[in-house]
Amino acid sequence: KGRKKFFRDHQPDHLPRMKTSNQYGFAILVLFLVSVQILAQNSGTIITGYDHGKNITTLKVVPVKISGDKDKYHSLHISPAFSYPGHQPALPETIDFELLTVVKEKLRVDLYVVFVVDGETIFLSSNRWGIKRPVPGRRWMGERLVFRMPYQTFLKMAAAKTVAVKLDAVQFEFGEEPMQAIRDFAEHISRSR
After folding, report:
1. Residue 166 phi/psi, 5° resolution?
2. Are 70 and 101 in contact (CB under 8 A)?
3. In the predicted model, what is the mean pLDDT of residues 39-67?
4. What secondary structure, in 3-state letters, does the chain show?
């Protein structure tokens, strides 16, 4: 009783009073709208994170789908990113160009990957990690490949008319959505410095 009286007596007269049950309903509505906004992020959305311990800021594109089921692959996504020290943006020397695959059979140890940008074949070294059972109920494997792409190569990719990635003999063409995500990321990097 004392708490309700305190709030009732200390609420400005020019603000409408809200019943306690309505306050809870309003709080739930706000939480719902915030969570919907977070879940509704489109692929290609750029997220920023800061690691206080390492004093590093990272910009990353939410994974964008390149392809669905094709040959031995169930799906292929890209997610370019880069990091810089502190909070002051700087032009990157390299982009961590990430490919995320879901493979319907065993991963190959000697996978050969090249990018094809306007007909030019570009080979980049990469780091690879396996991901066990990325699709619940399936015995498939996932793989995360991160290519250290020079920034100038990334800009060339952003300006290209055609881009593809070849994983051994299987070629995946980048459609409009991944190309737009790459262009938007390149533009975001150039604007933020």
Report:
1. -110, 125
2. no
3. 84
4. CHHHHHHHHCCCCCCCCCCHHHHHHHHHHHHHHHHHHHHCCCCCCEEEEEECCCCEEEEEECCEEEECCECCEEEEEEEEEEEEECCCCCCCCEEEEEEEEEECCCCCCCCCEEEEECCEEECCCEEEEEEECCCCCCCCEEEEEEEEEEHHHHHHHHHCCCEEEEECCEEEECCHHHHHHHHHHHHHHHHHC
Q: Is the pLDDT of residue 98 over 50?
A: yes
In this structure, the dihedral spanned by the alpha carbons of residues 110, 77, 154 and 173, taken in order and rounded to 10 degrees, is 80
Which tokens go with 170?
Answer: 């299987």
Measured CA to CA, the distance from residue 163 to residue 7 in angstroms comes to 62
Is 83 a residue whose pLDDT tops 70? Answer: yes
This prediction's pTM: 0.75
Residue 38 tokens read as 């977070």
First to last CA, the chain: 55
User: Residues 183-192: pLDDT tens digits?
Assistant: 999 999 998 7
